[in-house]
Amino acid sequence: MNQHRIVAALRTVLPERCVLHREEDTRPYECDGLTLYRQLPMVVVLPEEERQVAQVLQLCHAHAVPVVARGAGTGLSGSALPHASGVLLSMAKFNRIRNIDPLGRTATVEPGVRNLAISEAASVHRLYYAPDPSSQIACTIGGNVAENSGGVHCLKYGLTVHNVLRLRALTMSGEAVEFGSTALDSPGLDLLAVAIGSEGMLAVTTEVTVRLVPLPQLARCIMASFAQVTDACHAVAALIAAGIIPAGLEMLDQAASRLVEPFAHAGYDLDAAAVLLCESDGTPEEVEAEIEHMSAVLRDSHATRVQVSGDEAERLRFWAGRKNAFPAAGRAAPAYYCMDGTIPRRHLAQMLLAIQAMERKYRLQCPNVFHAGDGNLHPLILFDDSDPDSVARAEAFGAEILEQTIQLGGTISGEHGIGVEKLDQMCAQFDRPTLDAFIAIKHAFDPSGLLNPGKVIPTLHRCGEYGKRHARLEQAQFPELPRF
Amino acid sequence: MEPALAQLAERIRAAAAAHEKLRIRAGGSKDFYGHTPHGAPLDPRAVSGVVSYQPTELALAVRCGTPLAEVETLLDSQQQMLAFEPPHFGAAATIGGCIACGLAGPRRAAAGYAYGGVRDFVLGAKLLDGRAQLLSFGGMVMKNVAGFDAARLLAGSLGTLGVIVEVALKVVPKQPVELTLQFDLDEATALRQLNTWGGQPLPLSASAWYDQTLWVRLSGSAAAVNAARKRLGGTPASEDAGSGLWRSLREQQHPFFEGATPLWRISLPPAAPPLNFEVPQLIEWGGALRWVGTRQPAAAIRERARQLGGHATLFRGGDHAAAVFTPLAPELLAIHRRLRTHFDPAGVFDGGRLYPELDRANSAG
Q: How far apart, in whole angstroms, are the C-alpha atoms of residue B268 and residue A236?
């Protein structure tokens, strides 16, 4: 269907202000947070009611027009990259909090509500929504559902999948479905678990009910320095072995500390080979006991300095550097390539040492700042995007890190998603029968295959070509936002 | 493929070729659960043993035929546990059956890091599907968004998608101190109290209300448990009485579960008001799980559960040839059918254990 006809058809179900088709209007939607991939959609729609979303879907279904749903567009893997001959469905206008139930501890919200706005609205009841991706001031809950977003606190409080109770959604044919409920389980197969993290390929979310948890009375953070990266990695294992699940457990290597300190003034020990941030939250009694226990374990693990936040301002200052690594990297080099693999924790030291060797091999810097407690790494390869040789070395560097990730029993994406960015590496992580099962799951929810086609699951042909092409580079939109 | 797995695959292929139906059955400890099973038993217990367990990874990979008790003993030796406190319902229970049934015990609604049901702790799984293909979903790491989260889909799938031959689970540290407190409260007051406490930073790890008595379990550091005890009041139970109570609830050996009256499992939003069925009732999970013994017609029970935002399952007793689980909305049933068609195109596995319609669809098409 050509643009003229689809625009005319969409205007029969949407007010004129909700249909954008001129290039200057659709240009802002050409990419998400992964700006390397850009594609103008044929048309952008911004419906205002669920009924309109259903009508758009029915219309597109009837005319075999692909649909790509989009939240705030902060995603980092191109899941919301538009389709050239498709409709880009922005859910931005669905930004109302429908209900907060303080006794039942749930919030029911529209998908375009920002992650942080839920916690802000719940705070009068001393409750909050636990998953806190670093982009939480901008990213929406609909996008979090699509990506199964994590955050610093997910080690203790779980990912999006552990904190969403119910989704209302529309299938590609415009039928309303409900996955999950405000009860703790639902009859039949757990379709909710599959819908979360499905990168907008199974259904379009129109309402989300999340679980709220009590705000901890107190949180304190330990900043521990280590003379060796391996000591810091062993300290992570030692904390877990001691039966402690910190509220957050993050690591910065020396390169990362030196990168962010001038920017964030967090007070990091710049002589340390690695800094661990280890948080405890709960009641004052719990926190006091846990901080003491954590400090002892860190000292036993050869920490050279252990500093506990004295007040909330100091705690936030400890975190400021961690949360500003992305913008700091943007200042330090013309471009950077952010990786996102997860490996078993016991291989952290080995991986970091391997990355150090790769820095020498590819003559590029690669600071590491990451979710140590989850084993979720975010190596930041700094390079010069105006120098083709530097670009080529960065690509090879990234590919080698991903290869190593898979070899160590890890995964190519811990939290940023596959989108279009990591389609090739899917061929390396999964065999064909498993990839075919993903296709079958897609088909079970969307037999037409029109919802966000071409993402997440590589075709047979693509896997055949894998290896002949280079990894793609990632550059971030919204460089001012704290990330990962 | 190793021999035990290859044998299982061969049996599946042969059954598919002969249009034979198989019911996956290991220890048979949960034979009562779901619709009346059909087909020749397929015993996967030869696929057994721990594949990988590193306590500092908080992750365990184990083959399906491994006894649940063995898994728990292993974890206990490292002061770790399965957070969802699964019921065994017999010494023969295996980890594969535990995952396939997807049933969680008293700790399901715990505060903090132990919160969640079976699916919340599944990190990965290997499945022998109806074509005898070995599929490998997820992995051993805590955070993994590569591909659809199909491993979690297998928790509670009752064997309808294939044999879960291996599962990787997130495990958690055992909490050092546990204390059970007892309160005399009527049902409505107990429900309100549980939900009010649920919104406060308290180390609640289980609750049960029965016959005008409410019990709550606190789990955590000594400091946390002592502080909470002072705040909540109530009468502390001895350690033995406390652990005995939670074990009897988990395994349904509590006196409430005696007798031949059909037992209904009613899953509701935790703050839902009393069911008002005028029959014996036991409440767990902070109000979210209500066990009811009644001979009332299924339709009336289901309607009341639906009104309150939940669903009802005929758990034990009664007629398991009739509807056991709350019927699915047509769109959801269609998704179930299409999933079945891919994972088990020949209808080898007993899809009717979950919904008889899943097998009728297959035989029709």
A: 39
* Residue A22 Cα, gap to closest chain B Cα (Å): 35
Q: With an 8 Å Cβ cutoff, are A289 and B108 in contact?
A: no
Which has the closest alpha carbon to A251: A265, A263, A242, A239?
A239
Residues 417-436 of A with CB under 8 A from B: 417-418, 422, 426, 429-431, 433-435
Q: What is the pLDDT of residues A96-121, one digit of tens each?
A: 999 999 999 999 999 999 999 999 99
Half-sphere exposure of B216 (CA within 13 A, CB side): 28
Element (H, E) at A155: helix A154-157
Give per-residue burial for A254-277: e unless 16+ CB within 10 Å, then b.
Answer: bbbbbbbbebbebebbeebbbbbb
Predicted pLDDT at A40? 97
Q: Residue A399, SS3? A: helix
List, for residues A317-339, the tens digit of each pLDDT value. Answer: 999 888 888 788 888 899 888 88
Which among A463, A464, A466, A439 has a CA at the least distance from the CA of A453? A439
Which of A190, A374, A451 would best serve as a mutation to test chain B binding (most B beta carbons within 10 A)?
Answer: A190
- Is there a contact between B120 and A371 if contact means CB atoms under 8 Å apart? no
Does A411 contact B146 at a Cβ distance shorter than 8 Å?
yes
The band of B363, judged by pLDDT with boundaries at 50, 70 and 90, is very low
Written as six digits, the tokens of A331 are 């200042």
Burial annotation A143-164 (CB, 10 A radius, 16+ → b, else e)? bbbbbbbbbbbbbbbbbbbbbb
Interface of B with A in 235-274 (CB under 8 A): 267-271
- The answer to whether A124 contacts chain B (CB < 8 Å) is no
Measured between alpha carbons, how far is B258 from A454 in angstroms, rounded to an integer? 55
Q: Which residues of B touch A178 (CB under 8 A)?
A: 329
Asked if A275 contacts A224 with a C-beta cutoff of 8 angstroms, the reply is yes
Q: Are A60 and A69 in contact (CB under 8 A)?
A: no
Per the prediction, chain B carries an average pLDDT of 96
Q: Which residue of B has its CA nearest to A182?
A: B269
Give the Cα separation of B98 and B188 in Å (integer).
Answer: 33
